[in-house]
């Protein structure tokens, strides 16, 4: 969204009273649509991250649900050593996953002030994540299966991939596309680095906006307000399996107490809603994040492909992003 806001493609909805809607939304999702005192849209679904895990596999191999990333790495080793065809996770390199994991670790590699951009993919939070994830990549402990493919769904179903660290929108995808694993999966909080209070990040989610060139901006704004903040509309959205961003829906007892059979009757929404309360952080995207994601595979993706440290891939990504930013007229620094 910042990329489109910066190019003045989006209508500031503040003049239509959208600023008064802030209390209706979780802080992390509201911050994603409000920038520099302006409101550019309303959130619809949200993606606070949690750990989805295959309880059947965990029980079979005597794996405890990891609460820290060190425990997660140890569990990955234990599972793969017991059965070389099984992996705790799959990660072939995904820009959205990387930025979310950096955010959870407290990293703020991108900052923007008008036309001034700072990029530091070697900051403390980024290094905290790579020091953990490098152990999995370099030791071959993550499946290189590409997400959202037939093979990926198959491996999620047969236990070859035993966890996913992903957004709260995942349950519907599992139920629809991995039906054979009904009853096997559960949800737990995302591991932390110190075992302390929960801290997560957002992965995905969506929002709607009004384009600057709209011929009927007031009508479009009125529809958007109804679509994403009225009980009538959000109720329909939730019935279809969406994970809400409105606080009233997140706090609904009916929603919190749902016990999906797919997840063995676990009240998964309680875990996911708790995650939404600990997913607010200072992470910000680049004003040309769309381009950044497009060159990720050529840089960080090569570290995954070769099974080498992610540090070098992130350095290459940073170099590409600095060059592109300067070519686009931004003043770009790396400190």
Number of helices: 16
* Secondary-structure class: alpha+beta
- Rg is 20 Å
Could you name the CATH homologous superfamily of the largest domain?
A: Periplasmic binding protein-like II
Uncertain residue segments: none
In total, the number of domains comes to: 2
What's the overall average pLDDT, rounded? 96
**What best-fitting shape do the alpha-carbon axes yield?**
globular
Share of β-strand residues: 5-15%
Q: What is the CATH third-level topology name of the largest domain?
A: D-Maltodextrin-Binding Protein, domain 2
Through-space gap between termini:
24 Å
User: How would a crystallographer describe the biggest sheet?
Assistant: 4 strands, antiparallel
Corresponding CATH architecture of the largest domain: 3-Layer(aba) Sandwich
Total E-strand runs: 11
Describe the 3D structure:
With 335 residues, the protein is α+β, with helices and mostly antiparallel strands. The chain folds into 2 domains: 2-46 and 207-261, D-Maltodextrin-Binding Protein, domain 2 (3-Layer(aba) Sandwich), CATH 3.40.190.10; 48-200 and 282-333, 3-Layer(aba) Sandwich (D-Maltodextrin-Binding Protein, domain 2). It is 44% helix and 15% strand. It has helices spanning 2-6, 27-31, 55-60, 69-82, 95-104, 124-138, 150-158, 170-177, 217-229, 231-239, 247-250, 253-256, 268-276, 289-294, 296-306, 310-327; strands at 34-35, 38-39, 41-54, 89-90, 110-113, 116-119, 142-143, 163-167, 185-188, 202-209, 331-333. Strands 3, 8, 9 and 10 form a 4-stranded antiparallel sheet that branches. Strands 5-6-11 form a 3-stranded mixed sheet, covered by helices on one side. Strands 1-2 form a two-stranded antiparallel ribbon. Strand 5 and strand 6 (116-119) form a beta hairpin. Helix 4 runs parallel beside helix 6 (124-138), helix 5 (95-104) crosses helix 6 and helix 15 runs antiparallel to helix 16 (310-327). The longest helix has 18 residues, at 310-327. The radius of gyration is 20 Å and the shape is globular. The model has no long low-confidence stretch (mean pLDDT 96).
């Amino acid at each position: 969204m910042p990329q489109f806001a910066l190019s003045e493609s989006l209508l500031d909805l503040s003049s239509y009273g959208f600023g008064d809607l802030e209390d209706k939304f979780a802080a992390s999702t509201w911050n994603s649509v409000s920038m520099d005192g302006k409101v550019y849209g309303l959130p619809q679904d949200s993606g606070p991250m949690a750990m989805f895990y295959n309880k059947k596999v965990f029980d079979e191999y005597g794996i405890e649900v990891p609460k820290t990333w060190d425990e997660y790495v140890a569990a990955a080793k234990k599972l793969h050593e017991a059965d070389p065809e099984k992996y705790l996770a799959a990660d072939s390199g995904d820009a959205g996953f990387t930025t979310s994991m950096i955010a959870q670790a407290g990293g703020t590699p991108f900052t923007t002030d008008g036309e001034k951009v700072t990029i530091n993919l070697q900051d403390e939070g980024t290094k905290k994540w790579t020091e953990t994830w490098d152990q999995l990549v370099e030791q071959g402990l993550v499946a290189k299966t590409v997400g959202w493919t037939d093979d990926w769904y198959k491996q999620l179903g047969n236990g070859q991939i035993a966890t996913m660290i992903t957004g709260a929108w995942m349950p519907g995808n599992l139920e629809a596309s991995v039906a054979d694993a009904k009853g096997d999966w559960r949800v737990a909080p995302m591991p932390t680095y110190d075992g302390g209070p929960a801290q997560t990040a957002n992965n995905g989610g969506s929002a709607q906006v009004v384009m600057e060139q709209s011929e009927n901006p007031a009508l479009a704004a009125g529809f958007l307000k109804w679509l994403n903040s009225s009980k009538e509309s959000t109720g329909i959205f939730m019935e279809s399996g969406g994970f809400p961003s409105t606080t009233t829906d997140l706090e609904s007892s009916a929603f919190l107490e749902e016990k999906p059979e797919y997840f063995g009757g676990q009240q998964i929404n309680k875990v996911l809603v708790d995650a939404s309360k600990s997913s607010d952080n200072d992470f910000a995207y680049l004003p040309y994040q769309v381009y950044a994601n497009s060159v990720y595979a050529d840089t960080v993706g090569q570290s995954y492909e070769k099974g080498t440290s992610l540090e070098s891939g992130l350095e290459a990504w940073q170099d590409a992003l600095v060059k592109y930013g300067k070519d686009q007229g931004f003043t770009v620094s790396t400190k």
